[in-house]
Write a structure and sequence with these properties.
3-stranded antiparallel beta sheet, two-stranded antiparallel ribbon, mainly alpha, 2 domains, 5 strands
């Protein structure tokens, strides 16, 4: 069936969102081209290819009914949990961490996929839970196990940043499900009181990151090097930037990980405050679209999933920006669709694919 010259399936796609994603991904490719000194290899070309493949995958996912994601939430969670256990047994070690499964064409990081799996599984649990039991312990301990087990497994890798994001996804769904606020406040108070104990169990490099975050200049050439160079790169860009391909911190290798975790610093040095604001506004628009999807969802599962997945993308962006600006410890969270990296981009595109499916389902149910 067509409307004029445009086939109905194409017309139903969220084109404004797709153009926005293409702008973010394309800008990321441009930044990575500069980070490599004006070369498509080793980052820009592979980033563009992955982005296109994953975007097509997200569009295909949008055609899958919302009910399918609800039915597969628990089996999918179990599958990713098995992958996490496999990482502990046969995972590759890089940089002192054991986080990846080498599949040949991609180094799969199951902990990234768990961010999506936890949200879907927790939302599925609450969608099946009778409304009268939301304020009982039956509504608390199973979801805590759902995100608590992978949280512990990810901490063993060790990867504190990803582990906290997995827990944040589960807690977000619990909040949206209507768990009494006093439980969150009480848990926060207990957590704050236990911080000294938790700190003592962190790895030495993790303790250094926290201490250096508080005073990076204390060891500017050692543990505080990443934050110090990132702040220099961002600050030196000024309002309009130094100009494309004219960055010095990244091109002279002063800025570590300028193509992954600190790609925003690479961009801000050349594009300045205006470039930084442009990418932030683009992500705000993506988040706004996601929350609109949640508000229009016609099922309890759809509402909780859409809101929590939107917040997951928000956590990605916010933590990365705070990290590169020296306002949070360095925890290794990439900037979605801009940083070079396969599994992180795959996770975000999976989230967007599910969101587009929920939006399409809602339009069909309401006749919009």
């Amino acid at each position: 069936m067509t409307d004029g010259f445009v086939p109905a399936p194409l017309k139903q796609l969220p084109w404004r969102l797709l153009f926005l994603l293409l702008a973010i991904g394309g800008f990321g490719t441009i930044v990575l081209f500069s980070a490599a000194g004006g070369s498509l290899t080793p980052w820009a070309a592979s980033h563009a290819v992955r982005f296109c493949i994953f975007l097509v995958m997200a569009i295909i996912m949008s055609r899958i009914p919302e009910e399918f994601y609800a039915r597969m939430a628990m089996p999918g969670y179990a599958a990713v949990l098995i992958l996490l256990i496999a990482v502990e047994l046969i995972g590759g070690i890089s940089g002192g961490s054991q986080r990846w499964l080498d599949l040949g064409f991609i180094r799969l990081q199951p902990s990234e996929l768990m961010k999506l799996a936890v949200v879907l599984a927790t939302a599925r649990y609450y969608s099946m839970l009778p409304a009268g039991q939301v304020r009982t312990w039956t509504a608390v301990w199973p979801p805590v196990l759902l995100f608590g087990i992978p949280f512990v497994l990810v901490l063993l890798q060790p990867d504190l940043g990803t582990g906290l994001m997995i827990a944040a996804g589960g807690v977000t769904v619990m909040f949206l499900a209507g768990i009494p606020l006093r439980l969150f406040v009480g848990t926060a108070v207990i957590g704050a009181a236990a911080l000294p104990v938790v700190f003592s169990f962190l790895h030495d490099y993790q303790q250094k990151r926290v201490l250096i975050f508080l005073n990076p200049e204390e060891d500017a050439l050692g543990a505080g090097y990443h934050i110090t160079q990132s702040k220099i790169a961002i600050g030196s860009g000024g309002i309009f930037g130094k100009g494309y391909l004219n960055g010095t911190q990244s091109h002279l290798d002063y800025l570590p990980e300028g193509h992954t975790d600190f790609v925003f610093a690479t961009m801000a040095e050349e594009w300045g405050l205006l470039g930084g604001l442009a990418i932030i506004v683009a992500f705000v628009m993506v988040g706004r679209w996601g929350l609109q999807v949640a508000s229009r969802a016609t099922t309890r599962f759809g509402r909780m999933t859409a809101a929590a997945l939107s917040m997951t993308i928000f956590y990605y962006v916010t933590i990365n920006l705070l990290m590169v600006m020296g306002m949070a410890p360095v925890v290794g969270i990439p900037l979605p669709m801009v940083s070079h990296g396969g599994t992180a981009m795959l996770t975000v595109m999976l989230c967007l694919g599910v969101l587009m499916s929920i939006e399409r389902h809602s339009r069909r149910r309401t006749g919009l």
